Amino acid sequence: MMKCFRLSWTAAAAIAIIIGWVAPVEASELRCGWLHNPTPANWWLDDRDGSWEISVQGGGSARGMENLPDVPERDYVRTNGNYGYSCACLDVTTTPRFSILTVRTSESLPLKQCLEDPNLPDVNWK
To answer: Are 29 and 91 in contact (CB under 8 A)?
Structure first.
């Protein structure tokens, strides 16, 4: 006699994701901190959790790079010609390995906001 078994919807969805039938939903996160662009095509964000890679020259880059903020001159610190850093919040999708996959939206913040945030790393390259 054959025995039948039932899968719950949760178990069926988990199995479908594991074997690749369904793509997992990307969750959006808001990350705020120091937005760095020290040299061409190199971008990352340092926030309270660590340093998040956005783009690497000669390597990959996140989708939505065009959504990075336009930064007012008064809130931008130049460290290498036109390159430097600012303070920003980015609505992103990430990987567990500190890479940003997608920049959905962003907002430039006053430098003072990052300077006064005790959860952010110090900016040692002024």
So the answer is: yes
Buried b (16+ CB within 10 A) or exposed e, 73-101: eebbeeeeeeebbbbbbbbbbbeeeebbe
Phi–psi pair at 39, nearest 5 degrees: -150, 165
Q: Which tens digit of pLDDT belongs to each residue from 40-54?
A: 999 999 999 999 999
3-state SS, residue 114: helix
Neighbours of 46 (CB within 10 A): 19
Mind giving me the DSSP string for 38-81? Answer: EETTEEEEEETTEEEEEE-TTS-B-BTGGGSPP--GGGEEEEET
Reported as a single tens digit per residue, the pLDDT across 5-35 is 454 555 555 554 455 554 455 689 999 999 9
